[in-house]
Specification:
By secondary structure, this protein is α/β, with parallel strands linked by helices. The chain is built from ten helices and 20 strands. The protein folds into three domains: about 240 residues, TIM Barrel, CATH 3.20.20; about 40 residues, no CATH class; about 80 residues, Translation factors (Elongation Factor Tu (Ef-tu), domain 3). It is about 25% helix and about 25% strand.
Length: about 400
Amino acid sequence: MIKPELILPAGNREKASYALAYGADAVYAGLPCLSLRTKYISFDELSLGQAIDEAHSLGKRFYVACNLFAHEGDLNRVVRFLDVMEGYKPDALIVSDPGIIRIIRKRKINIPLHLSTQANTTNSQALHFWREEGVERVILARELRYEELERMCQESGGVELEIFIHGAMCVSYSGRCLLSNFLTGRDANRGACAGTCRWRYALVEETREDERFEIEEDARGSYILNSKDLCLLRRVPELKNFPIHGYKVEGRTKNLLYVALIARAYRRVIDDVFIDGSSGIDPEVVRLIGLTDSHGFTEGFLFPDSEPMQNYDRGAERSQQVLGFIRECADREIRISVKNPLSVGDEAIAISPEAVLPITIVELRMHGESIDRAYGAMGHEVRALIDKNLTGPHWRYGMLVKG
């Protein structure tokens, strides 16, 4: 039996640090210009190298995404990037373009290759093909049914397998979407997706162009292309006997709360199932998932009969609000970097990699003066007295969430 590694997204170095602290075995990231996320990603070559070093210092792994479909004008930049990455020694390169794979092999770059889900691998013969091309791990397409995954596990031919287990789902086939290009000129296959499937749509009759007809009787519009988010948390016991090497989470553009809570939840479930032999899911873990923003949840193509995959009623819904990040703690006194307004008397949930505690703000001070309310201004820090003792180095990555 293979215990899969938990792989979290990292849109910047801080997110990488939180993902690793909250239980990820590995993180993945890339440069905006060479991976499929150009917005809200702040890595450059130097910070990427520093993040790789940090992961390795913790005994964890770092996978670098270079999974764009390259045009001719990209190739020189790809070659330079690959040469730089060889010096930084990530644990794998995530690629999808056969041309980039050929460049890597031709230049004898000594970094393992993982094939991106963007390559749409849906059968065992494709696994054999990619293994012959030097790929060590294939991140399978999300469109697989349970029976197909089972067969591919049996016929993998020695190549490692990885699946997505949580995160946003693209309405198009494995992300091969042209809707964003058509409506905005932003190429989803080159990392610039505008999320057009999440927009509200209405019908227009050709002779009455100024008159909109809602597709459903809902004043907010219709989300006819809006997929729910994948969540296979409850299915981990069922997937236990499949030889899958990696469980991956989508979300390089998601916030720190998402990264931390999803990492903590899946870390707990994977350890319970693969180490302790549990066949059930702790309700507290399910509650953690529910604190993150989502479009509603689905078990995707693997378990299509469990519930509808589309959410026709609403877009993303924010479940909770991060009040601030804990920078220092000494028993009942904590120093908070404020993100959203908090007041004396507020009830919150204090979350760290090792604890989830309800707390109450008893007192707030800034520059030594008592205040009743703190605001989420840039760099705004306060000291708070709370009704619980917070001790231990794990609170370095603590956060306060609105209770």
